[in-house]
Inverse folding.
């Protein structure tokens, strides 16, 4: 869990230091602007912007029951943040597994990505999709929410 917060904490600390030096130099507007920017980056790199993670075993069990996708992710991953942002409210329709918190999830990702922990990796209808186009996943989630239909 601590590993997930290292990057956000370093960004927040850097923001405080940079803003402090600007404020000490007499540039209050620049100091507060930089502090706000660094704090925003810290929040965006934190686990807070993702739906609550579940364990890989539980996510797979639920996915088999209702057909919803499992998204393997990790904090600080730019592509994971892009996927999460582009899914918007639909992100809560998927089961999210933080591979830094769940060793079983990390093993699953390495198994389908030639030993690499490449995320996001999405499991949908028994197939893994590494770093899928967010529009593609959005469309799959829309299909699932609208009822039975063909899955690709």
């Amino acid at each position: 869990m601590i590993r997930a917060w290292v990057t956000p904490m370093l960004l927040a600390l850097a923001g405080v230091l940079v803003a402090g030096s600007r404020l000490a130099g007499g540039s209050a507007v620049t100091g507060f602007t930089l502090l706000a920017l660094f704090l925003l980056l810290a929040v965006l790199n934190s686990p807070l912007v993702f739906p609550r993670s579940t364990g890989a075993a539980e996510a797979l069990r639920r996915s088999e029951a209702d057909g919803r996708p499992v998204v393997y992710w990790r904090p600080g991953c730019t592509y994971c943040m892009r996927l999460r942002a582009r899914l918007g409210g639909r992100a809560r329709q998927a089961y999210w597994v933080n591979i830094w918190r769940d060793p079983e999830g990390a093993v699953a990702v390495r198994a389908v990505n030639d030993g690499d922990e490449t995320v996001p990796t999405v499991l949908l209808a028994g197939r893994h999709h590494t770093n899928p186009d967010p529009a593609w996943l959005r469309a799959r989630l829309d299909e699932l929410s609208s009822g039975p239909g063909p899955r690709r």
Summary: Residues 2-24 form the longest helix (23 residues).
